[in-house]
Amino acid sequence: MSDRKIRNMEEFAAVSGISRPTVSKYFNDPDSVRQTTRARIEAALEQYDYRPNVYAINQNRRLTKNLGIVVPYLADPFFAEIARNIETLCIAAGFRPILLSSHGEQSQELDNLDSLRSLKPAGVLMAPLGRASDKSAIERFCEDVPTVLFDSNIEGMGEAFIGSDNASFVNLTVDYLMRSGEPPCFLEMRTPANPNANKRRIAYIEAMKRHGQEPVVVGIEGDGWAFEEIGRQGTHAAIAAGDFTTNTILCSNDRLAIGVLSACYERGLKVGRGADCDLRVASHDDHPFSRFTCPALTTAAHDYTNVAGRSVETLFELIESGGRFKTRRETLFPAHLVVRASA
Amino acid sequence: MSDRKIRNMEEFAAVSGISRPTVSKYFNDPDSVRQTTRARIEAALEQYDYRPNVYAINQNRRLTKNLGIVVPYLADPFFAEIARNIETLCIAAGFRPILLSSHGEQSQELDNLDSLRSLKPAGVLMAPLGRASDKSAIERFCEDVPTVLFDSNIEGMGEAFIGSDNASFVNLTVDYLMRSGEPPCFLEMRTPANPNANKRRIAYIEAMKRHGQEPVVVGIEGDGWAFEEIGRQGTHAAIAAGDFTTNTILCSNDRLAIGVLSACYERGLKVGRGADCDLRVASHDDHPFSRFTCPALTTAAHDYTNVAGRSVETLFELIESGGRFKTRRETLFPAHLVVRASA
DNA sequence: TCTGAAAATTTACGCGCGTAAAAAATATGT
DNA sequence: ACATATTTTTTACGCGCGTAAATTTTCAGA
User: N or C end of chain B, less CB within 10 A?
Assistant: First the structure.
C-alpha cells in the first residue's frame, strides 16, 4: 500500500498504466474490460486506495446504483426485519440501498419520496403507510421512478406488488382455532392504518361463514403506530363491555395481540389452550417478538425471506426492463401456521 | 405552476430574474441573500418545481449536508427508536440523515464506514458494535470524518461520546431491589457484545458490596444479537444448574430479561413481587417492548430524548468547530427507575 | 443628495467523471 | 502470417453547480 494519495481517476489511471476511459469502464462494470487489463487495474487498487467520487459518477450517469427502500415505521421490528433482509440482498447485487422510514407520518413519506427523487435511484422498494398515504403523490412518484410496492398494496400503483396472501393467513388461523376449540372473534383497530387489516377482516368473516359460524368483529379505538398500547387499552375496554362472545380472540396482527396478552395478564386472565385457561389468543405476522410473549403467540407467519427476496428480484427485473412492466404484477405469499402456547 | 421544465440552475435563475451565483447562494443559505431577492426566488420556486442537483452540489461543496447515523443492529427496537429521534432532529436542522445498520456484523460496519467516507458527510453519529468492532478502522475513520459516538463508548475514539451512566442504571435497580426484597443476582451474557454490559457488571458488584452483600454474577452462553433467545435458553440452563442463589434476577438488559420471562413462563414460574411469586426480574434500558411483557418489566430507563438530543447537539457543535474539539467530551445521562409488575 | 457599505451581477474557471468518435493496439482464427 | 474482430487509447466535450474576483447596482444613513 503506497502512501501516495490518488486524487482522481486521472491519477489512478496513470499509476495503473491504463487510460482513464478504460478505468472508468472498469468501475462501471469490471467484466467489461479484458482480463489482463482488469488484473492490472486491480493490482493498482491493491497498492493505492482510490475509489471514484460518488457524486461525480452519479451526476453523469443516467442511472445510479442507488436503490430506495421506504418503510412506514422502522421502529416496528417487523419492518426492521424485512428491511434488513432487503438491504442485504441489494448490497449483494452491487447496489447501494438507501433506507428511509416514514415514521408513521404522511409528511415524512412525502419528504422521503422527494429526497429519493432527487437521488435518481435505479429503483425503489416501497411499503406505503396505507390509509395515511397521499395516493396521488405516490402515483406521480411511481410514474417518474421504477417502483415496486411491498407489504401494503395500493391498487394500480407501482409496477408490481409483493405481499402476503391475507386470506391464507386468516384461513390458517381460523381453521386451526375452529378445530381446536371455540370459534374465534376477531379483534382489530376500528380504523386500520393498513389495507392488509381490511383484507384480514373480510377473510375472517368469510372463513367464519364457511364454517357456518356467526362472525364477531371487535373494533377497538386508537390511532397511530403504538399498536401494543392500543391493543392493551382496547382489550380492557372490550372485556369491560363484554364484547368478546367466545373464549377465543383472533387478532388482526401480532402487535395488537401483544397488547391483548398484556391486558389479560393485568386482569389475571390466563391465556392458553389448557383446561385452566380463560382465553385463547392467536394472531398474524409472526412478529420477531411473538416467540417471547407469555404465553408464546400462536400466529400465521410471513415468509420474510421470500417476500424480501421476491421484492428485490422483481425490482431488478423491473430495472432491467427499463422501468416498466407490460402489466402490473402481483405476488402474494401464503402464510404458514406457527402453533405456540397461546392458542 | 408552470409546465415548463427547468433543467438546471442557469434556467431557473433566468426565469426568476436573478443571477445564477446569487441563486446558488440562496440554496446554500436562504438567509444569505437580501429579503427582496429571496422573495423573488421563492416566488419563482412556487411557479416552477426546480431543485438543485444533489450530486452536482455535493461534488463541489467541501462539506455536504449529509449526516451519517450508524447503529449496530437496527432490528433492535432500542436502536430503531434512538435512530428515529436522531433522524427527526437532523432533518429539522436542515441536514440529510443517512441511516446505516451494521446488522451485527463487523464486515457490515466496515462497509458502512467506507460508504460514509465516500459520501463526505458533514459529520457522523455512530453507535459502534463494541467488542466486534474493528477498533483501528474506526479510529482511522474518526480521523477523517467528524464523529460523535453514542450508546457504546470506545475509549478515545471520536471527538465525543454521549451515552448512559451505567452505574446510575445499576444503582437504581439494585437499591430498589435491595429495599423491596431479596438481594439480586446479576444475569448477563458471558461474552458481552457491548462495553455497557461490562460497566453494568462492575457497577452491580460494587453496589452489592456497598450493601454488604455478596455479588452473584450468572454468565450465560450465546453469541450474536438474538438476545431474547439467548436469555431464554440461558435461564433454562441456569435454573437447571441452580445458578440463581436468590429469588431476584437483575438482567444486564431488557432483551435478556424478555428471554428470562419467557423461560420462567415455560417453566410455570410466576414472576412478580407478590407473595405468590417465585421470582422477581428487573432489568435495564426500558426497551420499547418492556411495557408489554407479562408481567411488565421493572427497569431503569434511558433518557431516549436527551441522549438523542445531546448527541445531535454535540455533533452540530463539532461541525461548527471545524470537526475537532480541544478535548474529547463525554456526556453520561442518568437513568430513571420504572417500577412495573415484574419486581 | 451624497457617501460608504452591502448585495447582486458578470465573467470565468474548476470539480471528477461519463461518454462519444476516431485512431491505434491487441487478440483470435485460419 | 494475415485478415478480422475486439479492446484500448487519444482527444474532446459536457454534466450542474461552487466559487473567486472584479464590477456594477442597490441600500441605509447622515
Answer: N
